[in-house]
Amino acid sequence: MATSGSMGVATLFLRRAVAARASRALVAFATSRRLLRTSPPSRAFAKELFLGKIEKKEVFPFPEVSQDELNEINQFVGPVEKFFTEEVDSERIDREGKIPKETLEKLKSLGLFGLQVPEEYGGLGLSNTMYARLGEIVGLDASIAVTLAAHQAIGLKGIILAGTKEQKAKYLPRLASGEHIAAFCLTEPSSGSDAASIKSRATLSEDKKHYILNGSKVWITNGGLANIFTVFAKTEVVDSDSSVKDKITAFIVERAFGGVTNGKPEDKLGIRGSNTCEVHFENTKVPIENVLGEVGGGFKVAMNILNSGRFSMGSTVAGMLKKLIEMTAAYACTRKQFNKNLSEFGLIQEKFALMAQKAYVMESMAYLTAGMLDQPGFPDCSIEAAMVKVFSSEGAWQCVSEALQILGGSGYVKDYPYERFLRDSRILLIFEGTNEILRMYIALTGLQHAGRVLTARIKELKRGNVTTIIETVGQRLRDSLGRTVDLGLTGKLGAVHPSVAVSGHTWHTPHVGALLMDIPFQRAVTRVLGRMAQPGSRAPGPQSPSQVGWALWGRCRSVVFPLAYLGQCQQARGERVLLWPHCGDTATPLWQDHHGGADDPEAGSQHPHQPVWHDGRAVEGQPLDPSGDPKSRPRGSAGQHLLCRSLLPECLHPVPAGQVFSRKSR
């Protein structure tokens, strides 16, 4: 157990790091962050896919992290990782159904309750990238991860996004220190995914100084711990036509206002240490200055809060899976059946490959989305964040199931920690928006974006706008000459294709969302591999990203079927092909540098969490020619052992195909 002195040193270090960061020349970046509440979002990658556009400028160049920030990330990770690996007792937390008080106090002393609270209000003011990196460590205990996320990703996030200066100054300092804990109150007994149907009501008092709040909320994480609640309730709003309508308004509610009670903690399947309970408001007097945002604008506030925090699930779940892979591999490398270690059987190797693939994609998507969010201009990444959440939650459930299949009976009993991973991961598919609703959200939001753009274009054509007419005619001419490739979402007349235009038929939209999700998966991993291919990266020796790409994708083509199509699109435009998977028995190398070598201006840049690669034979510089000699290309099985050390434990190392996993000699 660490002493209080060591915790004090860690806290002092964190505060000094904050001061050092504040003194650096980041004026332009800080200005862009201050303006992001009023500036309209720039075009985003995922939304443009619904117009058949690949907005490469959104991902090229890769959202980089400076060397100073990279060093700072690594310094932050050290004390946090030590605490979670040496002091956090996850078995006790799960057994007792609560996080011990001393553990909560140490979390507060490490600054983990104010990671993204601006420094001027006493927080650490971390970027989204740094927040995602620490999420990998926090994910080692699901109960703690959920408690912290409910506090800052949704509980206090509304104050940061929509609060006034007075509200921020009043509430954020004590929330950042952990003196106060926050909760997000939206769900009710009769309204879950249909948030607009809530019944809680806030009525303006006769003196117009308070709102009288009444209602009940359910499934509220931190409900029994929180001092500050972000609460959503119906209020009467006078519309533009002088009619009175019920609209949702967001409020900052203190427990000290009175009339706030909570039920007993729920006895849950997983994340048992997190506090989840009902919260009741009975004639609670909320000062009018505690309205969050505009009266009647609460639904938008709620959606902005939820959309802003989903991306971090990718890195948090990836951190959990890496730990599970390590534990499962240790078992497979020592458990013998039929005079062989389990790790020597091909089917077991395939399960490990799948888990490593999923964790790698989750991590890649989370960091790329975080990097985009950190860029000036406030790019709209709401669809990307939803995609990260859907993929990560479903990938976690699949990987945990595969791990338990390897572990057999040992994974099914409470004497071992493995079954806890299964119980903890099931909630990921439900909270922060069910995956079914998010699939609908992805498709409908994208279609609405396409509809608005196309409607505006049609209006301009009808008005005789010369520029629009020339652009439209020129695009159709290029299409007819074969210089561009239509991705199938826009038709010849510039309208959404009939197969996806009927958004009223709800059974279409999830399939559209699933199709479009695959492209950002490919984009994220491509950019990570691309960064590691640059001169000066941490991919040492002869290891080639082409082999890594095949190891990642060769056995999950169902996830990346648009890859070959994207390659064809780029080739049709006369551009160099980034990826070209071959779906037969052989595969061409999966990488060719998009810039051209050592004179690349991005050379030497680093990914915030680069893996260290095992040595292996490389296949570099080969042309991406599907008609080439199949014998000169790596076969599908050749790359199965070329996995990343950050995903696989030290006891595993690359060996010839058929003997992928074996005990490493000491």
SSE class: alpha+beta
Helix content: 40-55%
Q: Give the amount of beta strand, in percent.
A: 5-15%
CATH architecture of the domain at 4-45 and 68-177: Orthogonal Bundle
CATH superfamily of the domain at 4-45 and 68-177: Acyl-CoA dehydrogenase/oxidase, N-terminal domain
The count of β-strands is 10
Give the C-alpha Rg: 26 Å
Distance between the termini: 29 Å
Q: What is the CATH domain class of the domain at 4-45 and 68-177? A: Mainly Alpha
Low-confidence stretches: 18-40, 484-507, 538-666
Mean pLDDT: 75
> Would you tell me which CATH topology of the domain at 4-45 and 68-177 applies?
Butyryl-Coa Dehydrogenase, subunit A, domain 1
Spatial strand sequence of the major β-sheet: 1-4-5-8
Task: Give the biggest beta sheet.
Answer: 4 strands, mixed
How large is the count of helical segments?
A: 21
Organism: Leptonychotes weddellii (Weddell seal)
Cofactor: FAD
GO molecular function: acyl-CoA dehydrogenase activity; flavin adenine dinucleotide binding
Region (Disordered): 590-639
